[in-house]
Amino acid sequence: MEQHSNNIIVDPRSGFCNSNSTFYSKRPSIPLPPNASLDITTFISSRPHRTTTAFIDASNGRHLSYSDLWSAVDSLSFSLSSKWGVRKGHVILILSPNSLSFPLVCLSVMSLGALITTANPLNTTREIAKQIADSKPFLAFTTPELSPKLAGSDVPIVLLNGELEKASFVNNNNLKVLTTLEDMLAVKGQRNEESVRVKERVCQNDAAALLYSSGTTGASKGVISSHRNMIAMVQTVIGRFKLDDEYQRSGGSQGSTFICTVPMFHIYGLVAFATGLLAAGATIVILPKFEMNDLLLAISKYKVSYFPLVPPILVAMVNHADQIKKNYDLSSLRHVLSGGAPLGKEVIEGFVEKFPNVVIMQGYGLTESTAIGASTDCLEESRRYGTAGLISPSIEAKIVDPETGNVLGVNQTGELWLRGHTVMKGYFNNQEATVSTLTSDGWLKTGDVCYIDEDGFLFVVDRLKELIKYKGYQVPPAELEALLLTHPEIADAAVIPVPDKNVGQFPMAYVVRKAGSSLSENEIMDFVTKQVAPYKRIRRVAFIDSVPKNASGKILRKDLIKLATSGSKL
């Protein structure tokens, strides 16, 4: 047994403490700066840079050096505060695909103590309008192509990659466009004694980001991440990849190169690729969108060493390995980082056989935990098939019986609770949801049914939250059910996940038609398709006489899942 500094006795094998029924991380603790005034941007920019190049845009080959990045961040934050009145606590929206502009905007906004909120470019105008109504952004950054999705919002817009005099869409879509990013950056040479940047004191506990997480009740909830949450996440990422050690092993001649296929609007993309890996001096290759050929060409051209992906991409690489190795040079690749769902033995061993020089790493996290929770950091750990990995550094975990509230032990299954520096501050303007998710002593109820084995490895076996995972995207069934019930010919509906080897899971709807209706499967799918992002679309519809529910009216999804897989009738 090991004794922690607070006299807690912990089993070194499992990380479990019998006296308080808590699992402690077996990984070394992460160092955090003192609780002083410090924002995430200053924290990142103050660290030593290991390479000259910060970002590369794979779509056009443009390089952005670290010196130019920090100069641009300084100019943009000056313009935002002195000319456009952005202040601490303001919410700034960015609606954009991955680009060089994305991290520039995020870093500048957060340096002022304002909150960055991100929107999925695939979302519909209706979905984005709901986020705007909740977050009430002071400004919005978006591209000319995506700007019509902000029509009717009355949010002042700054255009990315656009020129005002050529933006005929502005009048056509009744948009309130203020200026362009290029004009904002030009203020550097226009400063005078009367132009003063307002830089308010920013503390680590202040809010830095407002990201929307799929809920179980239909509506997304704004997750408030503090500067300390993000700093802790950055430190965890740096420690996990051992980037400082890799740089030293190369004799200071070479840093690490990551390829950013993860959307920057997502918590992992925002904190790791738009901001965090800069703290380790890594070079980040940006792809505006995922396309397999472009991705593999970029890995080859820019000698990428780290490749984040979701399980369907890993499966595709295994299935087409011979063709990939014939047409692309992946000799620089050293690690793939898989998230979204645990990998099975067949996939892991198939990948190891086809790409023996590439190490598989996996991860588990939530928006509410700033993407931190558990990880496998080497092949040996990943070969504990089905695991999400060991609990992340400086994180504590509990397994709690969701029915009784009893705290459980090793190899016992219940809801996973997490506590640590990366756990969110709460939900934006939603005290009820915050209280039901965060305990008074800081435990985050993840909504995932898990167990931790005798060696401290976490296994996710079910979801209390019932989210469907489509290509790594989260699809809340309740949101689709609420939408289906707005159709005049639908009396009741339930949505379930259907396993699929190519996409992970896809949404299927069971529908009860109103009397006399002849509504078809295609009509229902078209109805949903017009109102949601592509990843939320219903892929299959079946008709039933009634939706099975328990005494309290809760949909019995497990019965429907069994029905879908067995082909029988209820």
UniProtKB/TrEMBL annotation:
> Per the UniProt record, which residue ranges are transmembrane?
265-287
A single Gene Ontology MF term assigned here is:
ATP binding
What name appears for this protein in its UniProt entry?
A: Peroxisomal OPC-8:0-CoA ligase 1
Every copy of the AMP-binding enzyme C-terminal domain together lies at 479-554
Under InterPro entries, the record lists: AMP-bd_C, AMP-bd_C_sf, AMP-binding_CS, AMP-dep_synth/lig_dom, ANL_N_sf
In which family does this protein belong, per the annotation? Belongs to the ATP-dependent AMP-binding enzyme family.
Tell me the keywords, alphabetical order.
ATP-binding, Ligase, Membrane, Nucleotide-binding, Transmembrane, Transmembrane helix
Question: Where is it found, in Gene Ontology cellular component terms?
Answer: peroxisome
The keyword Transit peptide belongs to this UniProt entry's keyword annotation:
no
Q: Any idea where the AMP-dependent synthetase/ligase domain is?
A: 49-428
Matching Pfam families, A to Z?
AMP-binding, AMP-binding_C
Coiled coil regions in record: none
